[in-house]
TrEMBL record:
It comes from Metabacillus indicus (Bacillus indicus). GO terms for biological process: L-proline catabolic process to L-glutamate. Its EC number is 1.5.5.2. It catalyses: L-proline + a quinone = (S)-1-pyrroline-5-carboxylate + a quinol + H(+). GO terms for molecular function: nucleotide binding; proline dehydrogenase activity. This is proline dehydrogenase. Pathway: Amino-acid degradation; L-proline degradation into L-glutamate; L-glutamate from L-proline: step 1/2.
Length: 304
């Protein structure tokens, strides 16, 4: 309930504008967001990416945004992604570009999202860059998978995220393994109706391992995207990360010790870096998914 309340507050335009326009509150919240977000501009993200690449990490970059209901704003978001792709290409940075389909048109209409996605995939192909579609609330799953499947055979550089916590996801995984794109396996960040999901539990972790096993057995490119130390111990034990098409991916600012260890062991370790003026929303997501982050946020705010 806390998570849902927090996300509703974060998505409330008036509250968001109030904080972002307040000379007192803005720098305080920004200080807390800084742990998870590289900054507001593309340059902030590219600088962070360069810093991490110099330490031998792979990178994903997201320009933060979701649920854009205005076609002009979807166009502007798509243009930002296209500029990001060209700038990465010009700098020789081999980053994956991550995004929500609801940021580039899906909340307006399917065709707009499809058109923007194809344009981004074509631009990314020029530089051999990959795109990765994030997975949103279960109410959107069918629409996201439908758009992904329409582009996936033509654009092999487009991948998709799958949430282990949704009961439907086993069927979805079997289907997605028929397409070439990388599958990013996550537990799932959204609160969902109890009958649709499996809560955080050993059962969920075993199911996560089963999804990995299926991906590895199919020799499919997969990203193991989790910060769960216990789950990762099993992943290491099973030797899954030794497969050439398997990588570990973590959000920048979350359990950096774990990804560093994996990288130092010689495994493929990808850090997910974000940027954009919507950092407030991203901060709320991180607190909602792991409420103790509220204490970290408060201590970041008061630490001078
Ligand atoms: P959990 O069981 O939630 O947490 C295990 C432990 O990890 C916690 O006890 C804590 O120690 C640590 N931890 C977890 N989260 C945090 C945090 N925010 N801050 C500090 N410590 C933390 N979800 C989606 O629904 N759609 C997506 O498209 C999506 N993309 C993602 C991409 C990447 C690269 C990653 C890493 C995650 C993504 N997620 C996405 C989020 C994911 O679904 C989970 O909500 C998130 O990873 C937390 O789950 P967990 O597997 O880390 O394990």
């Amino acid at each position: 309930r806390f998570s849902n309340a927090l996300k509703s507050v974060a998505r409330n335009g008036e509250i968001k504008n109030y904080i972002q326009n307040s000379q007192e509150l803005y720098p305080l919240f920004m200080r807390a967001a800084k742990r998870f977000v590289s900054g507001e501009t593309r340059l902030d993200a590219i600088n962070k990416a360069k810093e991490l690449i110099a330490k031998d990490y792979l990178i994903s970059l997201e320009y933060i945004g979701e649920n854009t209901t205005n076609a002009d704003e979807c166009h502007a978001a798509k243009e930002e992604f296209i500029s990001l792709i060209h700038q990465l290409g010009a700098n020789g940075i081999k980053s994956t570009i991550s995004f929500d389909l609801s940021h580039i048109g899906m909340s307006v209409d399917r065709e707009l999202a499809l058109k923007n996605l194809k344009e981004m995939a074509q631009a990314a192909e020029l530089y051999h860059l990959n795109l990765m579609i994030s997975m949103e609330e279960s109410e959107k799953t069918d629409r996201i998978l439908d758009i992904y499947k329409e582009v996936a055979s033509t654009y092999k550089n487009v991948g998709i995220t799958l949430q282990v916590h949704l009961k439907r996801s086993l069927d979805d995984l079997n289907e997605l393994l028929k397409y070439p794109g990388k599958i990013r396996i996550v537990k799932g960040a959204y609160q969902e109706p109890a009958d649709l999901k499996i809560g955080r539990s050993e059962e969920l972790n075993n199911r996560y391992l089963e999804f990995i096993r299926m991906g590895v057995e199919a020799e499919h490119p997969i990203s193991i995207a989790t910060h769960d130390e216990k789950l990762l111990e099993k992943v290491f034990e099973q030797g899954y990360l030794k497969h050439s098409n398997v990588e570990l991916e973590m959000l920048d600012g979350v359990r950096s010790d774990l990804i560093k260890n994996a990288k130092n062991e010689g495994y493929k370790a990808r850090v997910y870096v974000t940027y954009g003026t919507e950092w407030y929303l991203y901060l709320a997501h991180r607190i909602a998914e792991y409420p103790p982050n509220i204490y970290t946020a408060v201590s970041d705010i008061i630490a001078f």
